[in-house]
Design goal:
79% helix; mainly alpha; ABC transporter involved in vitamin B12 uptake, BtuC; 294 residues; 11 helices; 0% strand
Length: 294
C-alpha cells in the first residue's frame, strides 16, 4: 500500500502547499472561481492542440503518454493562460461596472463548452473529458511529481521574493484609494504564475480536486486565523491530513481517490464550521452581563 500510494501522497502535499497559498489570495480577493476558470482555459488549449495533432497525424493520441504532458499541448495551454491573465488584468477596472467574478464565471462556461465540443470531434473524447475533470492522481509518475515540484518551487520562490508586492495587492484589492506601484503588472504576474501552476496541477489531479485543494483548506484556516503565516500552515496541515485519509479510504474500499479526498475535505470544512459556531456561542455567553438576582 505504501509503495503504491507514496507518490500520490507526495504529489498531493506539493499541490496543497501551493494551492493553500493561492487560495488565501483568492478568498481575500473574492474571486473564488478563478482557479477553475484558469484550469478550464488550460484544458481548452490542451484540447485544441490534441485535436490538431490527431487531425494531421491521423492517429489517436493518448493524453497520458510521456508523463501526461506533450509539448504542443503544454505550449498551447501556456499561451491560453497568458491570454487569460492579460484579459483578467484588464477587466479589473473600476470603470467596468460588471464584477470580475462574473467575467470569470462566463470564461469558465465558454472554455468548458469549447473543450467539450472540440474533444467530441476527436477520438476518445469521453476519456479526455474524464481525465480533464477527475485527473489520475493514483497513477502519477515520478516524472510528473518532479515536474510539479520544479514548477511549484520556481513559482513559490518568485512569490516569496516579491511577497510584499503580492500581499499588498491582495490586501488592497477592493480599495481603489490604495496607491500601489504598477498594480496591473503585479496583477498580471499573479494570474500568469497561478495559471502556470494550474497547468501542471490539472494534468495530475484534474480540475475538480485542484479546485477543492485551492478553496477548502484556505477557507477552514480563515475561520480561525487572520495572519497569512498561520493560515498557510493550518491549511497545509489540513490538506496533508485529509489526503492521507482519502488515499487510505480509496485503498481500503477500492474507490476513486479524488472523490475520497474531496469527501474528507468537505467533512473537515463541516467540522471547522461547527467548531467555529461553538466558539462564537461560548464567546457570546462570556460577554453577556451577569444578572443580579438579589
Amino acid at each position: 500500500m505504501i509503495e503504491f500510494l507514496i507518490l500520490p501522497f507526495i504529489a498531493c502535499l506539493i499541490l496543497t502547499g501551493i494551492t493553500v497559498y493561492f487560495g488565501i489570495h483568492v478568498i481575500k480577493r473574492e474571486i473564488i472561481f478563478i482557479d477553475i476558470a484558469l484550469a478550464q482555459i488550460a484544458a481548452l488549449g490542451s484540447s485544441v492542440a490534441l485535436v490538431i495533432q490527431e487531425t494531421f497525424s491521423h492517429q489517436h493520441i493518448h493524453h497520458a503518454e510521456n508523463g501526461g504532458v506533450r509539448t504542443p499541448e503544454y505550449a498551447l495551454s501556456l499561451f491560453f493562460i497568458l491570454l487569460a491573465a492579460m484579459v483578467f488584468t484588464i477587466l479589473k477596472n473600476r470603470k467596468i461596472k460588471v464584477p470580475l467574478e462574473a467575467f470569470i464565471g462566463i470564461t469558465f462556461a465558454v472554455a468548458t463548452t469549447g473543450a467539450v465540443i472540440i474533444l467530441d470531434k476527436g477520438a476518445g473524447g469521453d476519456t479526455h473529458i474524464h481525465a480533464m475533470l477527475a485527473g489520475s492522481i493514483l497513477w502519477v509518475t515520478l516524472h510528473q511529481v518532479m515536474r510539479l515540484l520544479i514548477v511549484v518551487f520556481v513559482v513559490g520562490l518568485f512569490h516569496f521574493i516579491f511577497r510584499k508586492k503580492f500581499k499588498a495587492l491582495t490586501d488592497s484589492y477592493h480599495n481603489p484609494q490604495e496607491k500601489l506601484t504598477n498594480p496591473k503588472l503585479w496583477d498580471f504576474l499573479f494570474y500568469f504564475t497561478f495559471g502556470f501552476v494550474i497547468i501542471e496541477a490539472v494534468n495530475i489531479a484534474g480540475i475538480i480536486l485542484v479546485f477543492a485543494f485551492l478553496i477548502i483548506p484556505a477557507s477552514i484556516s480563515s475561520l480561525f486565523f487572520t495572519t497569512w503565516t498561520k493560515r498557510f500552515f493550518t491549511g497545509l496541515f489540513i490538506g496533508a491530513a485529509v489526503t492521507f485519509c482519502g488515499l487510505y479510504l480509496s485503498w481500503v474500499m477500492d474507490i476513486a481517490s479524488s472523490p475520497a479526498i474531496i469527501l474528507f475535505l468537505s467533512i473537515s470544512l463541516f467540522l471547522g464550521l461547527i467548531i467555529q459556531g461553538i466558539k462564537m456561542v461560548l464567546n457570546k455567553k462570556k460577554k453577556l452581563p451577569e444578572v443580579n438576582t438579589k
